[in-house]
Amino acid sequence: MKRKLTTAICVAGMMVSIAACGGGEDKSSDTGADTKELTVWLTVDAQNNWPELVKAADTAIEKKHPGIKITHEYYGWPDKNAKLDAVLATDKAPDVVEMGNTEMLAYMVKGAFAPLDQAKFDNSDAWLDGLKASVTYEGKTYGVPYYAGGRVANWRKDVFAAAGVKSPPKTYDELTAALDKVQKKRGDKFSAWYQPTRDWYAAMSFVYDAGGSIAVESGGKWKASLSSPESIKGLNEFKNVVDTYMHGDKTKDESDRYIVYGQGKSGMIFAPAWEGATAAAKENDKTGKLEGNVENFVMPGPSGKNLPVFLGGSDLAVPVKSDAQTVAAEWINAFTGPAGQKGLMEKGNLPNNKTDLATLKDDPATAVPATAAESNWFVPMAPGWGQVEKAQILQKMLQSIGTGKQSVEDAAKEADAAIDKVINNE
Amino acid sequence: MSAADTTAPAKVPPARPAPPPTPPAVTSSPTRRLAGGAAVPWALLAPCLLILAVVLGYPLVRLATLSFQEFGQSQLWGFKPAESVGFDNFAKVLGDSEFWAVVVRTIVFAAACVVFTMVIGMAIALLLQRVSGWVKTLINIALVASWGMPIIVATTVFKWLFDSDYGIFNALLSKLPGVDMIGHNWFASGPEGLAVITLLVVWGAVPFVVITLSAGLTQVPKELEEAARLDGAGAWGVFRYVTLPILKPIIVMLTTLSVIWDMGVFPQVFVMRNGHPEAEFQLLTTYSYDKAFVVNDYAQGSAIALLTVLLLLGVIGVYMRQMLKIGEVE
Questions:
Q1: Do you know which CDD domains this protein is assigned to (chain B) (predicted)?
Q2: Contact B326 A6 (CB under 8 A)
């Protein structure tokens, strides 16, 4: 009896371990094989914030190609590329993919995207320089700029007014003085400035403001420079902000910032220009106090100038393995053309071209993001930069700094070593 | 082992029926039946073996070849041929001090999980013997329910239990006089975070151990326990000198299985850390995933996975030996 039982356990154990070994990456089942079907991968930004623009582009293409079936898949930024890598290994690649402008280079270098005819896209002669550079490799165009985004400060007028601050701060000293007042008045369960620790776009703004940088190029080779004295100074400024004004979970990133802000737990954020409005939208404004009370302003920096902001943005590319490349390009043009740009600007984004950008500064509603974007920084255009982002080296460094686990110097040194390992890899 | 067992008897009989002069029809029929009998088990096993070869064999072969090649995104997408680099990947992995830190962490973590699982499992199994019928049923239902909960769901629940802002665990702890844990972040430090993950793993593993051990406990002869008691053994003595030796094969089996499972913990850490475990949370599984899919060095990821397999081979050896020993006795 006993022996039988033990044997049964062995078998049961083996079965469970086999079952446990199973599972893994599920293969994508999209079939964008012929031109009757088009698969478009966008990030959740489009799904959450401007779905009507996607629909408008679909409608335009459906009119031109009756009977075409357009499938959309939406991805979060963190897991998108792992999925894309897996699908590009098969012959069922999507036809259009949205890429962050910092992610393009690694894929262009390896030949993952099909070259596009720049002349076929509206406004292509006036694309923003930074975005144009991000889609160009060895003189060929491999993508189409979609939009750009600067970052601005967004504050709650009611919270600051209650602490005696009536107009947006113009200098960094004014800003910290105002934040101190709010922090003192609201106690330490409230974040005068909700600044997620892992938000490297904000942290690096302080680094560049202090004259530092993530990495420097010399003789075609890149070398990380987060532990240079200037960079350390900027990181210390950032740590100061997190220590003094941020009273939330110090291991979080910026993905739910608008939700936290909408819950009324904070007086100010430093975020992409649309986030303040998103937090104040009905579904996110849990206290009912944000609507009509939030306002964007240009972020002053500790150096005395405006804080340089990360000029992020998205590009759209056509994978070289897509077999609907012509229609894919048409869809991209319908999406990023003049109508699309107008819609994106209304949401607080910067357009992909200089002509539209010029009009933004004259309009009081959009003048702030357009002005803030004038002072900007961009990631090192190094072949291995994509790996630095995917391995979340900067985020991990910032978390160590923010939680106090490592000193700024140690964390920066460790991050430099990690970056140096991958930044020159193709 | 099964091949030797089944073919041996088939070859013996033909020698025996030869001396007595019996009609040929009778002698030939058992021979034919037995000859066919040797192939039948294999025929029945074939579909299963085929599936195993495809599902387990192919990935294993691929894993082994990958670890001796240079294999990144370009090779994955077929733009570049995969070139063999010999032991380069292994040299790189073994020369990295981070790898050794991960190995040590994995072993400590797995050991803690196994010890807690076995001790708690044994305690509950013994308890089950002494409670009344309906309590036993209730405990069993609770055990099966927690066993049946998908890992991802369980992990998400634990994540919320230990959330720094809204977690019920912090709120409960703070009810104790003099304790203020509101806003305490369990995942800000590696050891604390791994302790929470250990709790989650043990919570998920205990039911199987309890159910198996209680089944084993029913096989312990009552007479032996009684005799021990007559000889003056206390509760501990009975457990130590009667129950434990009889349960030993089951315990060895459960322990080796637990080691294999706990060395392979992945989703608990991965989901708990939002898909990006910090350096202090990396176990061999997540480390290999990171290398393969985050930095896109599939070859080095494979090398780490292969090294993990080698490390586990010792444990698997114990398990196989125990299994074969049971087979022999049978």
A1: TM_PBP2
A2: yes
Question: Which residues of B fall within a CB distance of 8 Å from A251?
Answer: 185, 187-188
- Test B257 with A392 for CB contact under 8 angstroms: no
Of A112, A248, A387, the CB nearest to B165: A248
Distance CA A106, CA B191 (A): 36
Query: In the 3-class helix/strand/coil scheme, how is B26-78 assigned residue by residue?
Result: HHHHHHHHHHHHHHHHHHHHHHHHHHHHHHHHHHHHHHHHHCCEECCHHHHCC
- Of A313-327, B176-190, B252-266, which gets the smallest average pLDDT? B176-190
Residue range A172-230, pLDDT digits in tens: 999 999 999 999 999 888 999 999 999 999 999 999 999 999 999 998 899 999 999 99
The reply to whether B266 touches chain A by the CB within 8 Å rule is: no
The per-residue pLDDT for range B28-64, each reduced to its tens digit, is 444 455 556 788 999 999 999 999 999 999 998 999 9
Q: What is the pLDDT of residue A32?
A: 38
* Dihedral angle of Cα A263, A266, A271, A276, to the nearest 10 degrees: 50
Answer whether A6 sits within 8 Å of B250, measured CB to CB: yes
Shortest distance between the Cα of B185 and any Cα of chain A, in A, equals: 7
HSE at residue A7, side-chain half, CA atoms within 13 A, is 11
Give the chain B residue nearest A82 (alpha carbons). B293
Distance from CA of B287 to the nearest CA of A (A): 11
pLDDT in tens, B290-310: 888 888 889 999 999 999 988
**Confidence band (pLDDT; 50, 70, 90) for B2?**
very low
Q: Which residues lie below 8 Å from residue B155, measured CB to CB, with a gap of 6+?
A: B200, B267, B268, B271, B272
Interface test with B, best of A2, A3, A6, A405 (most B CBs within 10 A): A6
Model confidence at A313: pLDDT above 90: no
* Tokens 């599984």, residue located: B285
Taking an 8 Å cut-off on Cβ atoms, the answer to whether A112 and B77 are in contact is yes
Alpha helix stretches (DSSP H) within chain B:
2-11, 24-52, 58-66, 73-76, 88-94, 97-130, 133-148, 151-161, 168-175, 190-217, 222-230, 235-238, 244-263, 267-272, 284-289, 298-329
Lowest mean pLDDT among A68-82, A220-234, A396-410: A68-82
- CB distance from B275 to chain A under 8 Å? yes
Q: What are phi and psi of A298, to 5 degrees?
A: -75, 130
Q: Which of A9, A78, A82 sits opposite B253 (nearest CB)?
A: A9
Measured distance CA(B117)–CA(A371) in Å, rounded:
60
- B293: contact with A, CB 8 A cutoff: yes
Residue B8 has pLDDT above 90, yes or no: no
CA–CA gap between residue A241 and residue B327 (Å, rounded):
67
Non-local (6+) Cβ contacts of B282 within 8 A are B102, B105, B290
pLDDT (mean) for B116-123: 96
Task: Please indicate if any CB of chain A lies within 8 Å of the CB of B329.
Answer: yes
Q: Is A323 helix (H, G, I), strand (E, B) or coil?
A: coil
pLDDT tens digits, one per residue of A39-68:
999 999 899 889 999 999 999 999 999 889
ipTM for the predicted complex comes to: 0.70
B245 touches chain A (CB under 8 A): no
